[in-house]
Amino acid sequence: MVENVIIMGAAGRDFHNFNVYFRDNERYNVVCFTATQIPDIDGRQYPPEIAGSMYPKGIPIESDENLMDMIGTIGNILGIEPEMEMLPMQQGDVAATYADISRAKSKLQFDPKTPISEGIPQFIQWYRKYKDV
Which of 1, 48, 62, 78 is most open to solvent, judged by the fewest CB atoms within 10 Å of its CB? Predict the structure, then answer.
């Protein structure tokens, strides 16, 4: 069974963990990263060129303010009650960090416009077709 995962954070260590553990791991489907650490990164996309073949459209980076809404939307579309395990900060978690992403923004020229209310249903439709479920 594939487990849907939300990676809490969108910074260096979080992207590293994705690339090392989740990227080609068919047991997991990374739904999104949350934008808790870098100002103004929410609404962007982890590039498909880096995300790998399981994520041809990349992975959205969403504001953690919308996290509970996003989880509820996914649950409603799938007709399930999401299971959540709220944990305190874990060893290695970073409480706050900052990175200047202006260079990445200019190089990738990515400016997403799809709101979460449209993107989640589109992603689930794509995923079901892609995974034939």
Answer: 1
